[in-house]
Amino acid sequence: MIRLRKISIVTVLILSIIFSSGSFIGFANGKVVKTITIENALEMARKNNASIKYTELNKDKMANNIGNLLTSLNNSAYHLTQAIELENTRLNLISKLEDESLTSLQKENIRDQLSQVEALLSSTTTLGSSTNQLLDSLEQSRISQQMLIDNEVLEGHKFDYSIENQYIGLLILNRNIIKLEKNYEITKQVLEIERLKQSLGLSSLLNLEDTFLRFNHVASQLKQLKLQQEVVINNYKKILGVSEGIELILEPVSYSGIKYTNYTEGLKNALSGRSIQIAEKEIQRREEHLINVNDRYPDGTNKSYNPQVDLREAKYRLEDLKNSIEMSYKLSYNDLIQKENEIKLAEQSYNTAKRLYELSQLRYTIGLMSIVEVDNRKIDYETKEIDLENAKDEYYKAYRVYEYIQKGIMVNR
């Protein structure tokens, strides 16, 4: 189970506390409890992220592949050096055969040497002729290696957002359960009153049935939400590497220091951000690779592949990326403004409910309101407080999406 410290306040006896990376583990009411902040959750999730291990494995494979290519390239260069030496020897032997002072036996020996040199030259030239293809493969592998490294950075940011988003989602889910529990208590009280009124003949059976249906509906919603909470919590614990038997307490998120730029400046930042920079560098590397390939094959023949196609595809991806980032930025900016307005509305509702609750207390003390009405006002006030906290969390989620896209990083909402 995950609790909110601010909402669920219980009297506990802490028998043991172990501090670790800002979070702490203790015992409360016979349960092992771990209190964490959103920063703790990020740190724990990163350490437990299995995809990082796969990425490191792929990077190692890529490095090994490049190492093998370099070895093959060195061998090819060695054979080319041998081929040049053998060619010089061949020309020297041919020159000796033109000497008329040599005897037939001497010329025959020279011809035998020449045959041996030409045979070695043929095999050595064949071994050394793959140099250009090896250079092609090496440059391609280095481009792929850099893309893997760049994507690792982007995926890291997306992973962080996913952890933050789930953390805040759990805060909201827990509050919604608390709100529904309050609604459940209200409908339960109303049902009991309706039963009493019906037994006294002050209400119809139809009203009682209608109230009973509403009560069952709220009870069913509460049960489903708690089942959903259990599933979500267990999944989140696995992501963080926390045992199922440990109860997590999530600290509320701080909203201090949240600022965002104007629309035009933010869009400019997004279109020159990390993803665009990576795409532009890929194009630059592919352009350099194309120049090298053209230098290796000046007549355009014997190319193992056409790098021009890869370059065009990289340019198309850049254009698509710019369009996607611009669209994502517009959506995130509008969503941020909307969530900001929702906080203002939630604050107004909260302040109104608070004043009504305070007024009901006053009216109760002078006998103008029943305790049941006061309790209802109190529950409404507490519910509006939960709605305000949820609105703030939704705003924080929208802000984080905006913050990422302003850096040129698109995340899944």
TrEMBL record:
Any one annotated GO CC term: cell outer membrane
Keywords: Cell outer membrane, Coiled coil, Membrane, Transmembrane, Transmembrane beta strand
GO MF term set: efflux transmembrane transporter activity; porin activity
Keyword Transmembrane: yes
InterPro entries: TolC-like (IPR051906)
Coiled coil: 336-394
Transmembrane segments: none
Principal localisation: membrane
Top-level taxon of the source organism: Bacteria
Subcellular location: Cell outer membrane
Signal is among the record's keywords: no
PANTHER family: OUTER MEMBRANE PROTEIN TOLC (PTHR30026)
This protein's name: Outer membrane efflux protein
